[in-house]
Amino acid sequence: MKTYDFDQEQILKRIEKQVTTITAKLKLNNFDNPDLTFFDNSEFQRVMNISPRLCQKWRDENIINYSMIGGKIYFTLTDIIDLLNKNKKNKPKYYDRINI
Is the whole model's pTM more than 0.85, yes or no? Predict the structure, then answer.
């Protein structure tokens, strides 16, 4: 019989990350009122797939709006959508001539 040595701390961290990711995805599907749908800093980083340092840089450079309450940072879904829309790039016109 095979035995496995599991590190409980690693397992708990992995489960916590998965729960946070699932929560973030559920929030993305809640478009009833994007101004009332909030993401904390770690959820935002997971949704955007960015590092903590890049997230800090975006806040420092006012690339995204955020709220801070008691040292905890929050982003609204509206702010995330605005960030994505402001940085949306249109495909070059020469793609219109090519059938892809």
Answer: no
Sequence-distant (≥ 6) Cβ neighbours of residue 46 within 8 angstroms: 17, 20, 21, 24
CATH number at residue 42: 1.10.1660
| Number of domains observed in the structure of the chain | 1
Question: Which residues make beta-bridge pairs with 69?
Answer: 72
Structural domain of residue 87, as residue ranges?
34-100
pLDDT digits (tens, 9 = 90+) for 18-62: 887 777 777 666 666 777 788 899 989 988 999 999 999 999 999
Residue 9 forms part of a structural domain? no
Q: What are the backbone angles phi and psi of residue 69, rounded to the nearest 5°?
A: -130, 115
